[in-house]
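Hey Z.,

So I finally got round to the magnesium ion thing we talked about over coffee. Here's the setup:
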Amino acid sequence: MSDSPSTPAGLLSSITEPGDLKRLTAEQLILLAAEIRDFLVAKVSRTGGHLGPNLGVVEMTLAMHRVFDSPRDKILFDTGHQAYVHKIVTGRQDGFDLLRQRGGLTGYPSQAESEHDLIENSHASTALSYADGLAKAFTLRGEDRHVVAVVGDGALTGGMCWEALNNIAATRNRLVIVVNDNGRSYAPTIGGLADHLSTLRLNPGYEKVLDLVKDALGQTPVVGKPVFEVLHAVKKGIKDAISPQPMFEDLGLKYIGPVDGHDQQAMESALRRAKGFNAPVIVHAVTRKGYGYRPAEQDEADCLHGPGSAFDVETGKLLAAPTLKWTKVFSEELVRIADERPDIVGITAAMAEPTGIAALAKKYPERTYDVGIAEQHAATSAAGLAMGGLHPVVAVYATFLNRAFDQVLLDVAMHRLPVTFVLDRAGITGPDGPSHYGMWDMSVFGVVPGLRIAAPRDAATLREELREAVAVDDGPTIVRFPTGSVAPDTPALRRVGQVDVLREGDREDILLVAVGSFVGLALDTAERLTEQGYGVTVVDPRWVRPVPIELTGLAAQHRAVVTLEDGVRTGGVGDAVASALRDAGVATPLRDFGVPAGFHPHGSRAEILTALGLTAQDIARDVTEWASSLEASIPVT
Ligand SMILES: Cc1ncc(C[n+]2csc(CCOP(=O)(O)OP(=O)(O)O)c2C)c(N)n1
Ligand SMILES: CC(=O)[C@@H](O)[C@H](O)COP(=O)(O)O
Ligand SMILES: [Mg+2]
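And the result:
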């Protein structure tokens, strides 16, 4: 960047690396922040993405990159959805036209994109643990490098943060924790911690008062120790009077704040002081989610946390016509069930609106619990609720239940407790990338003794299987469905025990077992196989783990079995069906189709499934090739 920065209009285009920020004047930084906000709104309004969180961290991110030296110093983002500004100032402005699209920028930090990025996992409450380890490594290797971790007030409600803080407080490593306190996850952040932070947040920045005192004292001739003692006494008095924050200091952590996170100079001053401590320190920044863009600031639901697609810049409203979403079908049925069943209670992990629990909270606030971003606690708290005679419905995104496996296994299932986990965004989701794919549950939780998993294929079976799930009183259940618009209802021709027969061929050549949202794919595949001359039966087991025993009988009547699931193949439903056939002595050959175990790049759900060969055309081709290899056992007329 030239020594004399370009005209204000082109400031942003002149920023190609963090070093370019260090030459800007205070006035230019204000102009740059405005340009960045315009850039964020312009780009995200076309692609969708996490607008609210990123509008709230503009000054903070600029300050971090001016005070610290990335990538030598490491700046970590908890959850990572608020790293767009970081990407903008680290040479990736051009990539925002393809944000969250296949082949384009990811919506989270990405090591493949930049040496400035580290944490790629979009699951909350991990950054402080990474930071603890990284800071220890720098210290042990004798490297004079700082670690900065940005953690939101929502993420701070996650237990891992407190495990990390407990360890960090026992070190003297160079670690600056920036608490980005905007008072919200999606909705206002809940719990005692949130209340404590708001106590701090609502008091005037005692740091400002302190600076004023310092300035005043500074005019007198420096008298050394007595001045420091006076200053310290004043600071203690101010602290106790204005912003008691023993929580962090009792942990042994230095605390700076609350600081106005939109005051560039104040943020830089706080970060420079924190950097100078050369020890763990918390900088408590108070920000506003959606800051600087009225539709986001005024969005009471979630400050335009993450519009999923293009929206109108004037209003912030999505441009796409609304469709019936799986979540809404669940939400409405849950309220109907709650009307009939006073023992039904709902639990959300800081995602009441996105998971549909909000409707229950609206009608039965006393029977709905937001536990914060705390899925492990949600599962075991649900176990407690069940021990108390209630039937909890825990609604989370499928991917986030991964972290509560032990709780589901031993706190819920081992006690045979009636808890229903409703997993939204199950299967391949898309734009949020691999740490958001809900592809593991049917495999991981499929091994839990006594746990039953339902995978509805449409709205009618979601309602039916949700009711069946909450009727189970001797163990946990999972009901899982994908992101997006609900599939059209596919009525069954008949039901064999638990299993719905959806299509019958003129011969019993191939039994196609379709799991949940893959029923449509299975029916399309069946049509293609029929054109090849095969007789194809399509069935939906509905309850997929444990495998319904009727499948073994149906398999024995056919020459081949094919399974299709929107979940990881390894240990998935296909493997479970194969195991059941072996146990039943049914020798019918089986071919399973599912998501290969791996971290598949982001894109649209359709693009990713196509790339994985999970299309009717690809599957029919593969099945035909496979069947011909079996030849004698599957004659084609
Ligand atoms: C384990 C986990 N649960 C839920 C989510 C979904 N989620 C994404 S961002 C978010 C809110 C984060 O709030 P906060 O940490 O305060 O960051 P902010 O968006 O306010 O900047 C949630 C719940 C997640 N990413 N990870
Ligand atoms: C960062 C995060 O975990 C959520 O904000 C997620 O991006 C939301 O996904 P949906 O858009 O599917 O609700
Ligand atoms: Mg927040």
